[in-house]
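Appendix B, example 12.
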Amino acid sequence: MAAVDTHLNSTVHLEERIRKLNAIGIALSSEHDLNKLLELIVKEARSFTNADGGSLYIKEEDKLKFAVAQTSSLEARKNQQQSFKSFYLPLTKESIAGYVAVTGELLNIKDVYHIPPTVEYRFNKQFDIKSGYRSKSMLVVPMRDHSDEIIGVLQLINSWNADGEVVPFKAEYEDLILSLASQAAVAIRNAKLIAEIKNLFRSLVRYSAKAIDARSPHTAGHSGRVAKYSVRMAQAINEETNGRLGAIHFTPEEIEELRMAGWLHDIGKIGVRESVLEKTTKLTNNQINVICERFENIKRWKQTQFLETKLKLMMGGNHTTEVERLSCNLRKEMTQLDDDLEFIKRINMPGFLKEKDRTRLKNIAEKTYTNCGGEECFYLKPLEYENLSIIKGNLTPSEYKEIQAHVEHTLSILNKIPFTKDLQNIPKHSGAHHEYLNGTGYPKGLKGDEITIQSRVMCIADIYDALSSPDRPYKKAIPLERTLEILRGEAKAGKLDSDLVELFIRKKLYQRPSLEEEEE
């Protein structure tokens, strides 16, 4: 009867350990942060075997990376987390971890201070000497992935019995820890694969955005800076403890999503003509040269008219006084043409066109001359007049609409990308970076709570960078004080989130990112 009870207890005990092993496997498979995963593997393995300490090594080519070290008794003695810096070991049979990684053998050592001289590995006592620790029993197992490749080593140190004494690791632990190590190896592979995919996606996003920004040298680096300013603001919000912002918290996944949204916010500019993106003046140099050539033709036409009239007067008798009057008028007209041309060149530069200048431009445009074909023509063509009469900036209404349409292009592109769940809000955030709280933004005219906090953050970052950048074709960089005044003015007008603007200014989040920061 006693034998039956012992057998039943053993069976129940084994089933309990198997259930725990399955639970650990589920926990490992759900953790995708590699550093957290490695710590979790060691923690669970120690718990499973009543081990005081544990280490984990990752195989990297011809080296072993000592990635994790945990020791409960030392941490309790120091009353703090054990200080540890990872380092590399040579992948050889000389160390215990190296031997297991090379051979794939499991080692269950009763006392590492009494290793027989007949084996190839040795125990390094340096850690014990420095910390005052006494390593004794050790269970070391290879970590094999689904393809049976050894990717690392799990090392457990000093198993405790119920009385708190260090004892050898039980033989029954070996198969279970091997199983756990294999599960852990697969989880590590998956975590690395996910990390690699994320890094690949992040690189594609970053370099795609850079390529689009690079279509115009004047916007190079803009997307990276907007991403950086946006992430800074999110991190600053997390530091707030009071007020409305104190109730908002971004998870690491949400911050990464915001970073990607910042990088992608202008991807729709791929659908905007380069001639519009690169427009530095109202008319191009070629267009101005055409006007210059036309004005030279007008001069020649006036000179021809004068000579024809002079010839008629001279053939009709002595009309010296009338000829002198015509000569004087011709000189005035030539001077006026030169002045008008210089005026056109001046107002061709971006800026604010005053009312008197608009009136003068209209008068010039409505003047006519006769070309060599005998056709009556205006001094300026409709397209030339439309561009030169731009009151502010250098874009016509249709060109401005084309620029604005980049947000719709962005939405169209991003909505076609099958983002993973943790990045699924990128289209929503990126597509609203020109929306204003009072509904005067574009493309949808969203208002208030219809605009996510992430989009509000990006809107401020985008406006600040556009105002402060020294390389925009249509304006010089606005001084910092004036830029911050504009942001506050836009918040006062109900366009921007005033709490976010004040946070941006108060914490000086506007400091321009370094090249290293923009690569993050």
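The longest strand covers residues 150-160. Residues 2-10 have pLDDT under 50 and may be disordered.
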